[in-house]
């Protein structure tokens, strides 16, 4: 785990467990990507809200 591992498998390998763990890890990656995308949108909206024009002050 010190080298970056987040999971491990024991032998003999159980195919159902491998599938479940891979599915969970892929889901975590997708969630991380979604969070990053939404954070970028919020940051862009925040920057856009800082702009002012002569009519709105």
Please characterize this protein's 3D structure.
Residues 1-26 form the Response regulatory domain. This is Two-component system response regulator. This protein has one domain (1-49). It is built from 1 helix and no strands. It has one helix at 15-50. The longest helix has 36 residues, at 15-50. The radius of gyration is 21 Å and the shape is rod-shaped. The protein starts with 14 loop residues before the first helix and ends in a 7-residue tail after the last helix. The mean pLDDT is 88.
Summarize the structure.
By secondary structure, the chain is an all-alpha fold. It has one domain.
Unreliable spans:
none
Shape: rod-shaped
Helix content, binned percent: 55-70%
Q: Give the terminus-to-terminus CA distance.
A: 54 Å
N-to-C series of helices and strands? H
Helices, by number, come to 1
Number of strands: 0
Number of separate structural domains: 1
Radius of gyration based on Cα positions:
21 Å
**What characterizes the major β-sheet?**
none
Kindly estimate the percentage of residues that lie in beta strands according to DSSP: under 5%
Structural class: mainly alpha
Mean pLDDT: 88
InterPro entries: CheY-like_superfamily, Sig_transdc_resp-reg_receiver
Organism: Marinobacter nauticus (Marinobacter hydrocarbonoclasticus)
Protein name: Two-component system response regulator
GO biological process, one term: phosphorelay signal transduction system
């Amino acid at each position: 785990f010190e080298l970056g591992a987040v999971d491990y498998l024991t032998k003999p390998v159980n195919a159902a467990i491998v599938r479940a763990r891979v599915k969970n890890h892929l889901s975590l990656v997708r969630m991380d990507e979604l969070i990053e995308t939404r954070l970028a949108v919020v940051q862009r909206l925040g920057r856009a809200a800082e702009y002012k024009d002569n009519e709105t002050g």
